[in-house]
Amino acid sequence: MKSISVVILNYNGAEMLRNFLPTLLRNTPAMVEVVVADNASTDDSVTVMQNLFPEVKLIKLERNWGFAEGYNRALQQVKSDYYVLLNSDVEVTEGWIEPMLSVMENDAAIAACQPKILDYKRKKHFEYAGAAGGFIDRYGYPYCRGRIFDTVEQDVGQYDEICDIFWASGAALMIRSEDYHKTGGFDGRFFAHMEEVDLCWRLHARSRRVVCVPQSTVYHVGGATLNYNNPRKTYLNFRNNLLMLYKNLPDGDLFKVMLFRAVFDYVAALKFLLSGDGGAFKAVMKARADYRHMKHLYADVRKNNLECTTAESPVTSRLSILWKYYVCGCKYYTQLK
Question: What is the DSSP code (8-state) at residue 204?
Fold first, then answer.
């Protein structure tokens, strides 16, 4: 039997641990190890773990490393064949592990998968961060089966087939430990946001598959650390997306894509400014400036990624999701085809 560890990276999430850990422990097979890695929380998270959940392995990190590097450091201390990275604000359901494990065990080419992720507050709707599996368009914009930009679909079984996807959500990500470490894990310099998309891109480039297994369902609160309109979140999403493109795009696509992205980003910044959202405007401008300052730090990383590439550019579609959504009126994933 393969070993599995469910690993929750926690930062100031004591209330989430109280609310969701009991359900996780109840619905997870006894042979699965449950681990909470605490990112130097300043609330009573550690006390909650020690007093209420002494049976759960606790890893105490010495400072807040962020989501990406926090997981890298925590997983160095976890020895299992499979990792399941789970947000602290996720409610799992009965039998949630078994379908994903079955799919992974039956196909060695699959490196990672995710369950169907529904909204904890609107349980008949998909959740923003992952839904039924993620994709990116030719310019690096992410979207999902069940969510394109701010349009979130109701789940009526339309995405209940197992499907190859481009990226699996870090809110609930099952991955072979060998693949995680072999591809370098998350990019710690991202801190948070886009790290799972970047990791899955590297998996695809090495001819590994990523799938969604909707026979497994979880419910995600979302925005527990930073809400969706937070300028810090906007900054990290824009900056990390640009760094991800620079790291992974093949030479033939890089210049053209980054040229278009510069135009699109400045248009987005102007839109934020005209709508009165000065925080988002500043976030986009800072993201672009920091990308330019950080790009040289990734020259060797880019070279290594391209040298390790064994598959064609895995961008899942040559379409522009901006064009499809705003011009063609395609609000749902099924309309893109």
Answer: H
8-state DSSP, 16: H
Residue 82 structure tokens: 């499979």
Q: Tokens 């169907």 map to which residue?
A: 116
- How far is residue 71's CA from residue 8's CA, in Å, rounded to a whole number? 9
251-252-257 Cα angle (round to 5):
90
* Residues facing residue 152 across a β-bridge: 147
Higher pLDDT, 227 or 213: 213
Confidence of residue 305 (pLDDT cuts 50, 70, 90): very high
3-state secondary structure of 288: helix
**Residues 173, 308, 107, CA angle at the centre, nearest 5°?**
45
Residue ranges with strand state E in the chain: 4-10, 33-38, 57-60, 82-86, 90-92, 110-119, 134-136, 142-144, 147-148, 151-152, 163-164, 172-176, 209-220
* pLDDT for the residue numbered 310: 84
Dihedral over Cα of 169, 171, 177, 180: its sign: positive
Asked whether the beta carbons of 216 and 6 are under 8 A apart, the reply is no
Question: What is the overall mean pLDDT for the chain?
Answer: 94
Nearest alpha carbon to residue 93 among 14, 20, 6, 161: 20
The alpha carbon dihedral of 227, 228, 231, 233 has a sign of positive
Q: What single letter denotes the amino acid at residue 241?
A: N
pLDDT tens digits for range 39-95: 999 999 999 999 999 999 999 999 999 999 999 999 999 999 999 999 999 999 999
pTM of model > 0.90: yes
